[in-house]
Design a protein that fits this description.
Layout (H helix, E strand, L loop, with lengths): L21 H27 L4 H11 L10 H8 L3 H13 L3 E5 L7 E5 L1 H13 L1 H17 L10
Antiparallel strand pairs: 1-2
Helix pairs in contact: 1-5, 1-6, 2-5, 3-4
């Protein structure tokens, strides 16, 4: 059974004697609410474009490959989606059947296959990315504002 790596962005376990300010709770709740709202809006936009939310995310992870190639392998998708390989393989098979992605052999390794978006996949994904542009910008501003609020003050403590 394969497991996916979960990234740790530098969080640390809380100690029972550590004091938590009310503002910490408000910021955490506000951030979670904003993320959930963004995700919910994304689900609705995906459906309006004729995609399931899972397929929209799959297409986005392929098109938005970190190296700029606009393609991905199953292994890369397992890491980025934080899903098991068999789940990603099934998601890919269904998206391929729906005409949203195509497979292309890797030029240097015949055992590897790259996935890229079909013309139809490109069209539908573009609809969702365009529709969510303002939502993304709002979420980024909110996260930036929270980061600014938590910047260390003169005494070295985080606000």
């Amino acid at each position: 059974m394969s497991s996916t790596k979960v990234r740790d962005w530098g969080s640390r376990p809380a100690r029972s004697e550590e004091h938590v300010e009310s503002e910490d709770y408000r910021q955490a709740a506000s951030l979670r609410a904003a993320i959930r709202l963004f995700l919910r809006r994304g689900e609705n936009v995906a459906r309006a474009a004729g995609l399931t939310p899972q397929r929209q995310l799959l297409l986005l992870m392929i098109k938005g490959a970190p190296n700029g190639s606009e393609r991905a392998t199953i292994t890369e998708l397992v890491e980025r989606l934080q899903l098991r390989q068999n789940t990603v393989t099934e998601l890919v098979a269904r998206a391929e059947e729906a005409g949203l992605i195509v497979r292309e052999p890797a030029p240097t390794d015949r055992r590897s296959v790259y996935l890229r978006l079909s013309v139809e996949g490109e069209r539908r994904l573009a609809q969702t990315v365009t529709a969510l542009r303002g939502d993304r910008e709002h979420l980024v501003r909110m996260i930036s504002a929270q980061g600014d609020a938590q910047a260390p003050r003169g005494n070295g403590h985080v606000a």
